[in-house]
Design goal:
110 residues; alpha/beta; single chain; 4 helices; Glutaredoxin; 5-stranded mixed beta sheet
């Protein structure tokens, strides 16, 4: 489901990929059965390619990573968060445009 540049973030690699990341990380919380999640999927994959080297973009499947879903207090999906220096700096729910997600990343990079 994820594009080649899009990370699959799991409980196993969360610490190394997100918490210890030297660049901001945009995370898309999604699930296979979530139709709106599928709608934003292509935009997330495009951002992963466009921001390569500047930021990381990844997806967390809430069904297989329940601890992370709890940690981020995920109540509905799609939920997109931006983590910088181990802290959540942006959080948005629902279907948004690629440009809106890009704005969140740009703000974290500024």
């Amino acid at each position: 489901m994820a594009g080649p540049a899009t990370l699959t973030i799991t409980e196993a690699n969360y610490q190394s990929e997100v918490v210890n990341s030297s660049v901001p990380v945009l995370i898309d919380f999604w699930a296979e059965w979530c139709q709106p999640c599928r709608m934003i999927g292509p935009a997330i994959d495009q951002l992963a390619t466009e921001y390569q080297g500047k930021a990381k973009v990844g997806k967390i499947d809430v069904d297989t990573n329940r601890q992370l879903a709890l940690q981020f207090n995920v109540q509905s999906i799609p939920l997109v968060v931006v983590v910088k220096g181990g802290q959540v700096v942006a959080r948005t729910m629902g279907v948004k445009s690629k440009a809106e997600f890009a704005k969140l990343l740009d703000a974290a990079l500024a």
